[in-house]
Amino acid sequence: MAEAEKSSDSSGGGGEGESVKLFVGQVPKHMTEAQLLAMFKEVAIVDEVNIIRDKATKASRGCCFLICPSRQEADKAVSACHNKRTLPGASSPLQVKYADGELERLEHKLFIGMLPKNVSDAEVSALFSQYGTIKDLQILRGSPQTSKGCAFLKYETKEQALAVLEALNGKHKMEGSSVPLVIKWADTEKERQARKAQKAQSQASNVPHSSATHQPSLFGALPPMGYLPQYNGFSYQHPGTYGLMQYPMQNQPGFHNLVSPGNQGTALRGVPPELVSTVGPRNFAAMQSAGYMGSAYPALPGLQYPLAYPGGMMSNRPLGNSQGATQSVATSSDLTTASTISSSGICTGSGGQIEGPPGANLFIYHIPQEFGDQELSNAFQAFGRVLSAKVFVDKATGVSKCFGFVSYETPTSAQCAIDMMNGRQLGGKKLKVQLKRDNKQSKPY
DNA sequence: TCATATT
């Protein structure tokens, strides 16, 4: 209080002193923004603290964002705090890092597409240095003399990147090329992972006939990705969501067919009416079993992306970020909804994890890769009422990490499960079943 | 290999 401590203000809106957002994890849920601000101000200049809260309950989610006026200050906060101290009530030390997408934003990194195959570093360099100082340039190559037609480039400042975007994107043809360059902000790490996950998913859905003996997986029934996006170019897309649908293939008909009938009206929006009957629930199953999946769709017009990237010519990442809001790769709770959960009214605890009393919670390792929450729950329900079952998955790829938790109502059930299941062969490996470690020891008083 | 979370 008192001192008006502004960062080097200078004049109007120069592109200098960009503020930096940090993500902080392992923040005890009871701490206030004021407390956190006071704490972080001891090590760096911090303009703002925002606790991340549950949308519904407003409860702290145990993490927050910090806004620092410069990279220098942000780095001070990181080096002073990250893994350095544990706040009272937290189970492990503070995690302080650049928020998602922040590093990329600060690097002014661009993706350049539609480069000629035979382009040289010198040519690209010469062209792009007209607009600013190149800090880094990588042309993706298949062999030393052939490019893959794209590159990544970092400029010193955002203004330089904006200048080249304005000047060249979609406008400039390089020698030896018949199409103009495509220039856009490079994907953030998160976007890349989302893309990767989708690719993985589409690969999985491309093996139509492998389900002879085992139970068909949810994704096994999906048509290959990339068939729907074109329709977003028509007017079928809900107008209110159009701008956000950067990866429209998440509206997969196969997926939504597994959702309750009441949802299908909205689930299928974006699909032209004449197609609904084709991919509708009943016919879909028939097509699937008849092995039509590979051939039914390609007859549709315009199936190829006009460009290597969906999103095409537009460099549509604004200043901060945003989008990604709709980019859920099928989450475990979606799957839970979709699968037949009926069995025994188990709550698999999607969302907040329900813990049982002390001694009633299990940690399980070597869970078969293909197990989800529901399968885990099923495997352990013989020994008592399962309050929750959670398999941990890689956030980006959706791949199981092969460990998880099961919580029972009573320690007896848990012990029984250990006796019966520990060391039991399930899938390829032997399960390891043990009591979950208890993190919260004594209360501080 | 123990609940890690990005308004």
TrEMBL record:
SUPFAM superfamilies: RNA-binding domain, RBD (SSF54928). One of its GO terms (molecular function) is mRNA binding. GO terms for cellular component: cytoplasm; ribonucleoprotein complex. Keywords: Cytoplasm, Flowering, Repeat, RNA-binding. Its main location: cytoplasm. The keyword Ion transport does not apply. Residues 20-101, 108-188, 360-438 form the RRM domain. Residues 190-215 are annotated as: Disordered. This is Flowering time control protein FCA. Coiled coil: none annotated. InterPro entries: Hud_Sxl_RNA, Nucleotide-bd_a/b_plait_sf, RBD_domain_sf, RRM_dom. Signal peptide: none annotated. It is found in: Cytoplasm. It holds the Pfam family RRM_1. Residues 206-215 have a biased composition (Polar residues). One of its GO terms (biological process) is flower development.
